[in-house]
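hey m, so remember when u said the tokens were messed up on ur end? i reran from scratch. heres the input so u can diff it against urs
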Amino acid sequence: MRNVSHVFLEGLTRRLSDGQNILLAGPRRIGKTSLALEVLRRLHREGHDVALVDMFGTTSVRELAERLANALLENRTGVQRTVEKLRDMVRSAAQTEVRLSVQGIELGMSFARRQGSDMELLEESLGITDKLIRASNNRVILVFDEFQELSRIDADLHKILRSHLQQKPHISCLFLGSKPTLLAQLFSQGNEAFFRYAVSLPVPEIPSDAWSGYLVRKFSERGISITPAEVGLLLKLTGGHPQDTMLVASEVYYVLMEMESQVMESQVVSLTVLEIAYQRALESLMRAFEELWGSLSEHQGAQQLIKKIAYGERPYGQNASPARVGRILTYVMNQGILVKMGRGHYEFFEPMFRDYVTRL
């Protein structure tokens, strides 16, 4: 597994360092953000200024401006919420305009007093990239996580952001998102502001043999042995979903730790241990699955269709409208829940969510 990740990380790091803009789209919880953080760590070590802006839950242009400023300034201050610190510093100051210097970078932090329009503050935050480039003569790498949320914040943000970025050849962008269909439209349709702005790369899947070798090695380091049969069952239960697989594996370890009658050095992963670990992992995911299931009620027919597929039924029934079923399938696939495997054949991207649905 390490070799697969290593090759992809090396290539992604080099592309961004060379000035290429990249799009990584895929369902949530498959490791996109973890990949991005490792890439940023490597690029920062090379001397580049880096910033990750999480758009998930962002509700306004002003909040986006502050998140961007915080992420950019952290390169120089080492403080995660620099804007808030500045605001505390000038709360009692008499001046209307506050000028501060952060390691040689002069900043007009008017938003420390929450002044200016939302768009003006966003422009000021984007302007920090120019100051960083002039100060270090290196590239600035921006990562926008859950980028599809941009249009929900403000319909004009795509044009504003593209206008700024295309004039800055020393900025590279990595766009992450959990709505592949929507992101594909944003970057491939001619009427969109980000048309052909980034190269879309597939998030690499981890092969079963790579998972197997990795799990056997990690368990062995803890004095635990696991047979290929148990590894195969674990991967069948999780479908190789990165976070779910690691969650079940960690629960296996803790289940074994609780078996006080055994000596850790001679422990073996049995079918019983694996079943207990899986149930615990499923319980820990219950709240997230409940929220996902509840959100599907907003689209009429989505829950019913997902139930059918969870129980092994075909989505297109005798009395179902093909057009309506097609629209629902497009919706749930865009949510990263189902994957089309062939004509009329769909599977759950996350098998543990399927188990949750069948237990409702």
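this time it looks ok to me. The chain has three domains: 2-201, 208-284, 287-358. if urs says something different then somethings off w ur setup not the seq
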